[in-house]
């Protein structure tokens, strides 16, 4: 799964990677947690026939349209790539409402026994070796409440871990290369058989990781110091 991540580059640098028209201004975030607002990139075909990308914010925690009371529905922060076309919660969004979530890094926890006298779970930071911003494949949904309220929601798609990540966890975010952004965001693409191959583990040479301190465990901590290697 992916339960925490970071987005720290300046807004203009992120805009240059993802190519949306808006010019949002937002601070660096080193410890993004579920239920918080997260940047998402979507695409829409306009009246002139041109498809353009757009920046938006969504709650990290997907709410399918059929949910009547969010308080009684589990928090869906991740969706498994292997079952998107089958799960009622995700199959419509997989066909029609795909997005990208920009990220610089994500965190996973190494589980160890207590025999060594250290914490059972030790956080690790994963990032691209080349320092580039990542685009996590995601889904979004605009949930409509019974009183007319609207909530933009999103989740991160996960896939099986590649070699380095598998040393820590058996799942990882589906990281798309920039050359695949258009294919994933294409508003006219609705064939799961053609979309599914994009959701593959990153190559074994793409990511690097290192252990960090326990400050990331609390969502209240959101400073650069949480990424300091141990």
Query: How many alpha or pi helices?
Result: 5
> Beta-strand level of the residues, as a percent range?
35-45%
How is the CATH topology named? hypothetical protein yedk fold
CATH superfamily: SOS response associated peptidase-like
The number of E-state strands comes to: 13
> How far from one another are the termini?
23 Å
Radius of gyration, rounded? 18 Å
CATH top level assignment: Alpha Beta
Low-confidence stretches: none
Helix content range: 10-25%
Number of domains: 1
Protein described:
The chain is mainly β and about 230 residues long. It has a single domain, classed as hypothetical protein yedk fold (Alpha-Beta Complex). The protein has 5 helices and 13 strands. Strand 3 and strand 4 form a beta hairpin. About 35% of the residues are buried. The model has no long low-confidence stretch (mean pLDDT about 95).
């Amino acid at each position: 799964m992916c339960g925490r991540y970071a987005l720290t580059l300046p807004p203009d640098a992120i805009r240059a990677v993802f190519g949306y028209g808006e010019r949002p201004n937002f601070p660096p975030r080193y410890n993004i947690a579920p239920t918080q607002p997260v940047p998402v990139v979507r695409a829409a075909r306009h009246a002139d026939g041109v498809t353009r990308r757009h920046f938006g914010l969504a709650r990290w925690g997907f709410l399918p349209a059929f949910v009547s009371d969010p308080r009684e529905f589990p928090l869906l922060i991740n969706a498994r790539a292997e079952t998107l076309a089958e799960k009622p919660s995700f199959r419509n969004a997989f066909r029609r409402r795909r997005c990208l979530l920009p990220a610089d890094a994500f965190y996973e926890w190494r589980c160890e026994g207590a025999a060594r006298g250290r914490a059972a779970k030790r956080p690790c930071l994963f990032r691209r070796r080349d320092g580039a911003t990542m685009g996590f494949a995601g889904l979004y949904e605009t949930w409509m409440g019974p009183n007319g309220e609207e909530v933009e929601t999103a989740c991160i798609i996960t896939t099986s871990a590649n070699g380095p990540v598998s040393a820590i966890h058996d799942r990882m975010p589906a990281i798309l290369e920039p050359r695949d952004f258009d294919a994933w965001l294409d508003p006219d693409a609705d064939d799961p058989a053609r979309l599914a191959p994009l959701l593959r583990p990153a190559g074994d040479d793409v990511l690097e990781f290192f252990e960090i301190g326990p400050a990331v465990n609390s969502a209240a901590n959101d400073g650069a110091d949480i990424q300091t290697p141990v």
